[in-house]
Every structure is written in C-alpha cells, then in structure tokens.
Specification:
This protein is α+β, with helices and mostly antiparallel strands and about 150 residues long. It has two domains: about 40 residues; about 90 residues, MmpS1-5, C-terminal soluble domain (Immunoglobulin-like, Sandwich), CATH 2.60.40.2880. Helices cover about 25% and strands about 40% of the residues. It has one helix and eight strands, in the order H-E-E-E-E-E-E-E-E. A hairpin with a 2-residue loop joins strand 2 and strand 3.
C-alpha cells in the first residue's frame, strides 16, 4: 500500500511539473511574439499616406541627392495626403533619398544647392520604377542641380 501511495504521489508530481512547464513555455513564446511584433523601426524619411491605395498605373518614384559638401538644401515635388506638394528640406548628410508613388503624365521635379558656398559637386537624380529617368548636377558656387520631367510610360 505504501508503494502504491508513493507511486501515485510521484506520478501526480510529474504531471503537475509537466503542466507547469507547459504553462511557462507557452507564456515565454507569447511574450517573445508580443515583443517582436510590437517593436517598429522609426524612419527619418516621410512615409506616404497609407490611406491612398496604389493603382496599377501608378509609378514608384525615388529622388536621390548626393553632395560631397555634406550640407545642402533640397526642394522636391511629391504626392502626400492625396495632394501634390512641394517640400523644402535642409539636409546634413552626403546623401538624401525619398520614395513615393506618382501618377504618370505629371511633372516630377527635384533641385538641390549646397548650403555653404562650395564648388563641390552636387547631383540630383529621379528614378522611376528603379530606372534612372532624369538627372542633373552642379559644380560651381551657388549653382543649382536640377532634374525634372514628365514621365509618360
């Protein structure tokens, strides 16, 4: 009888420990999933409005600016909050990129100028669907690099 009691007690403790381990493992997995899904990387670039659905005729545009001086002003036309806007920015790095969706047959435009007087090269580029569409550069003090055009497919 004592053996049966010890055996039943041992079996009960083993099942109880297994249930506790299952709960701990399940809770650990849930916390890990929650941690990874709740973390979002913050972007320094403006994000196009998510309320706008991308139509099949829309094109993906990316503006790129490169300046050896590392400090320049950029002005570009883009589509934000369901309207065409002109944005001006002061950039303190060697490169700048901005991507958005655009409708064909509308004028794309980007210009940039070194903020401090410099004869270092500044280059602007417009990429449409990953292919260079227009570019411009300036190398003189006070000169503006300009790229603009109407993409028609």
């Amino acid at each position: 009888m004592a053996r049966l009691t010890v055996l039943l007690r041992s079996n009960y403790l083993t099942q109880n420990n297994q249930n506790q381990m299952k709960k701990i493992i399940t809770l650990s997995l849930l916390l890990t999933i929650l941690f990874f899904t709740s973390c979002k990387k913050k972007s320094t670039e403006p994000i196009p409005s998510t309320a706008t659905t991308v139509a099949s005729e829309d094109i993906k545009v990316q503006y790129r600016v490169t300046s050896a001086s590392g400090h320049f002003n950029v002005e570009y036309v883009s589509f934000e909050d369901d309207k065409i806007t002109t944005t001006k920015k002061d950039v303190g790095s060697i490169t700048f990129t901005y991507s958005f969706y655009w409708v064909p047959k509308q004028k794309l435009s980007i210009s940039a100028i070194n903020s401090t007087p410099s004869n270092k090269e500044i280059k602007v580029e417009i990429y449409v669907n990953g292919v260079l569409f227009k570019s411009g550069e300036a190398k003189a003090v006070g000169a503006v690099a300009l790229a603009e055009g109407v993409y028609t497919n």
